[in-house]
Amino acid sequence: MNSIIWMALALVLVLEGLGPMLYPRMWRRMIAALIQLPDNTLRRFGGGLVVAGVVVYYMLSRTGG
């Protein structure tokens, strides 16, 4: 189980690194746009990502993936 968590973390790091590596200007503009958003909007966006992650995890765990 511990190795699965480390593999998941590694995959997150790879996916997070693709944006600045492949599209640095676009990534920088996106970060600048995020800075302008109100806190409540960022909280909703973050909450949506957490819910989506939990749903995907649940679906994968139910199918034995």
Automatic annotation (TrEMBL):
<feature type="transmembrane region" description="Helical">
    <location>
        <begin position="44"/>
        <end position="60"/>
    </location>
</feature>
<keyword id="KW-0812">Transmembrane</keyword>
<keyword id="KW-1133">Transmembrane helix</keyword>
<keyword id="KW-0472">Membrane</keyword>
<protein>
    <submittedName>
        <fullName>Putative inner membrane protein</fullName>
    </submittedName>
</protein>
<dbReference type="InterPro" id="IPR019201">
    <property type="entry name" value="DUF2065"/>
</dbReference>
<feature type="transmembrane region" description="Helical">
    <location>
        <begin position="6"/>
        <end position="23"/>
    </location>
</feature>
<dbReference type="Pfam" id="PF09838">
    <property type="entry name" value="DUF2065"/>
</dbReference>
